[in-house]
Amino acid sequence: MKFLFACMAVLLALFQPGGAQAQEQAVVEQLAPVLAAEDARDWRQDLFQRSLLASDSVVQRVAAMAAGRIGDFRATPLLLRTIEQPDSTVRVAAAFALGLLRDSAAVQPLIERLTGLPPLDIPTAVEAITSLAKIGGRRSADFFTAVLQGKVVLSQPDPVPATTQILLELWRLGRDAPADALLPFTRDTVQSTRWSAVYSLARLRAPAGANQLLASLRDPDPATRAQAARALVRDYTVAAKLTASTVAGIVARAVDDADPGVRINALRSLSTYRDSTFVPKIAWRIEDPVPNVRVQVASTLGELGGSVAIAALVRAAAGKQSFALRREALLGLARAGSADFSRLSKAWQSSRDWRDRATAAEGWSFGKRAESPWFMSDADGRVIAAGLQAWAANVEGPEPALLQAGRQLLSHPDAGVRSVAADIVARAAAPADVPALVAAYARSQRDSFPEATLAALNGLLAVRSAGPDGRARVEAEFLRSAPRPASYLLRRWAEDNWPEAAAKWGPAYPIDTGRSLQDYRDLARQYIAAPDSVARPHVFIETEQRGILEVELYGPEAPLTVANFLRLVDRRFFDGNRWHRVVPNFVIQDGDPRGDGFGSPGGVIRDEINRMRYDIKPMLGMALSGPDTGSSQWFITLAPQPHLDGTYTVFGRAVGDVSSLGRITQGDVIRAVRR
Predict the structure, then answer these.
(1) Cys-Cys link to 362, which of 263, 299, 390, 478 (CB 3.0-4.6 A)?
(2) pLDDT at 594
(3) How far apart (Å, rounded) are the C-alpha atoms in residues 246 and 398?
């Protein structure tokens, strides 16, 4: 009876004014230290033991995700126990977090739970499958093979969702993946099953699957056809011992598919065959009604070459088309080795728009480079960086002229230029370059992004690794006197690449985040404890002449990422930017005030990898140059991209009318991003 009265008292307290508020505050107080530990990548055993057993399931769920993101293997036994919790949201978070840890010690316990009793619920089983795929190894591969072949039975009453997840995640196993086991499922009557099997088969590019991928080009589902088309490149065809010209002909027919995604992927694969006989079949598509199909046609024509291709590219480059199409057409002429590139690029070289000059600089690198690299003296560092980067990509080793350019530009004021220059200088691994690389490292400490710093370090490491003379100079002139970097990114780089530097500089983690416990309370209250109407705010992205796109942000799944994004929105940081990167049927990307891929406002945030997936819906993700390097650049997917799952933080999705996405091309101006 006393227990009954106690329960009634608690219930009455909750319904009293302020009762719910008090409960929310209690949850916030428990969440704040968990968020702080996650952000600092600081494993605190007592905190997580306590939080994973908290009375509130929200605290348990957030703690499970945080344990996975921190990445300490001491979390493994705690998370395995958490899979047995009564709340399904907690179980599924724990199963997902084990995949973030990638601890092989979790493989056998996960297999036992997937096949044992009581059966896991479907969402938890799906995440357990995904975690096994992420952990990988022979044991996971054998288990998946046995399930697909019917030799092992999953214990779920409905095993189809978990089995379909095996099909989708099998590509993660690489060489251990049983590609042959996928083949029967590529002909399944259920569309999602076929697509999952074809996706993994296409990612694996196993020779045994080539004929089936050719057959999948006739699948009734356009997403399945698109995956098959993307896989059928020339190298894969040759590895599968198929006749390249025959396969190219089949891929060329897919260029006329009703679905633009299939057309784009087929065009991309067709370009790898370098066969100009297919040009007449596709050249007319440069007038395709879908803008990014036209862009991909220009790229493919440049790879295929021939007089018909060149004539079409000349018309596109000189016409009144979008910047994206004119750019790709000019680069196509350069790739095709046409004299028309030199003729047309003169106007681009003298343009007031740095993007035009950067395009001409890129194109210069594809030719014989008989002329001197005119872009080296351009007033805009973005032009120099673009030309230098393309030049470096088109030659191997320390080409003397390229190396001379890299050394000349290693002290350039622009951080992007210095980044590319240091990468070039690293190819020589010459002890004489040590003073310049040390100076470049010192100068880069003032940059707003870390690429030039990391490039200088890579250059110094290359010299050190080349021989005793280089080792001695790097030790004497850099390592002995270099202070401990403030950036955890540099300390983590040292841990991964240079043990002696790591020993001197100390560990990368835990991180000094610069946030107070109150900051984490505010984040928890705003994005985790709040109702969805508050925690999942909507933002509107307006692109000139393309319309408005509405997106919903995932506050509960990625509170730090959403808070960072909204902070930049409120600063009007994105207004007036351009979509600086658009890869047809893949992503559109923004967030770089420079417009060339290097820019950021400074500072980085940690990844918040979560259960949201890059599936059929257009999803928002954080662009990275490595783990925990997010800042201001973000992207929206244009097609399902499961290979991005688990690497790039998903923090929102497009909602409502998404037709404007298909009309956006590289260089389009973002008028405003607003709440």
Answers:
(1) 390
(2) 96
(3) 39
Q: Write down how long the chain is.
A: 675
Radius of gyration for the chain, computed over Cα atoms and rounded to the nearest angstrom: 27
Mean pLDDT for 481-493 is: 96
Q: Report phi then psi at 87, rounded to 5.
A: -80, 125
> Distance of alpha carbon 560 from its chain centroid, rounded?
18
Q: How far apart (Å, rounded) are the C-alpha atoms in residues 585 and 319? A: 24
**Look-up: residue for tokens 């399945």?**
224
Cα 96 to Cα 76: distance, rounded to the nearest angstrom: 12
In this structure, are residues 668 and 637 in contact, taking their beta carbons and an 8 Å threshold? no
Question: What confidence score (pLDDT) does residue 17 get?
Answer: 56
Residue closest to 456 by CA, chosen among 488, 483, 490: 490
Sheet holding 581-583, edge to edge: 581-583, 587-590, 634-637, 619-622, 650-655, 547-553, 538-543, 670-674
The per-residue pLDDT for 11 is 46
Rounded to 5 degrees, φ, ψ at 235 are -60, -40
Gap between the Cα atoms of 352 and 248, Å rounded: 41
Q: What is the DSSP letter of 478?
A: I
In sign, the C-alpha dihedral spanning 272, 275, 279, 282 is negative
How far apart CA 558 and CA 652 sit, in angstroms, is 9
Q: What is the pLDDT of residues 33-68, one digit of tens each?
A: 999 999 999 999 999 999 999 999 999 999 999 999
Q: How many Å apart are CA 547 and CA 554, to the nearest integer?
A: 23
Q: Quick one: pLDDT at residue 466?
A: 96
- Listing DSSP states for 175-220 in one string gives GGS-HHHHGGGGG-SSHHHHHHHHHHHHHHT-GGGHHHHHHHTT-S
Torsions phi, psi of 635, nearest 5?
-140, 165
* pLDDT score of 370: 66
Burial class (CB in 10 A: 0-12, 13-18, 19+), 25: middle
Number of helices followed by number of strands (H, E) in the chain:
34, 8
Q: In which band, very low, low, confident or very high, does the pLDDT at 603 lie, cut at 50, 70 and 90?
A: very high
At residue 126, φ and ψ (nearest 5 deg) are -60, -45
Q: Are 222 and 248 in contact (CB under 8 A)?
A: no
Residue bearing tokens 């020339």: 234
Buried/exposed 84-120: b ≥16 CB within 10 Å, e otherwise: ebeeeebbbbbbbbbbbbbbeebbebbbebbbeeebb
Contact 477, 438 (CB under 8 A): yes
Q: Please state the rounded mean pLDDT for residues 510-533.
A: 97
Residue 147 and residue 115 in contact, taking contact as beta carbons nearer than 8 Å? no
Strands, E assignment, 530-607 = 538-543, 547-553, 581-583, 587-590
Write the burial class of residue 125 (CB in 10 Å: 0-12 exposed, 13-18 middle, 19+ buried).
Answer: buried
pLDDT surpassing 80 at residue 1: no
- Which of these, 161, 43, 44, 155, lies nearest to 110 by C-alpha position? 155
Write the CB contacts of 426 (distance below 8 Å, at least 6 apart in sequence).
455, 458, 459, 462, 463
Angstrom distance (rounded) from CA 616 to CA 222? 12
To the nearest whole number, what is the mean pLDDT of the chain? Answer: 95
DSSP element (H, E) containing 620: strand 619-622
Using alpha carbons only, give the angle 338, 341, 343 rounded to the nearest 5 degrees: 115
DSSP secondary structure of 291-359: HHHHHHHHHHHHHH-SHHHHHHHHHHHHSS--HHHHHHHHHHHHHTT-HHHHHHHHHHHT-SSHHHHHH
Instruction: Find out whether 465 and 426 touch, Cβ atoms under 8 Å.
Output: no
pLDDT score recorded for residue 438? 98
- Nearest-angstrom CA–CA distance, 418 and 141: 44
Each residue of 407-416: pLDDT tens digit? 999 999 999 9
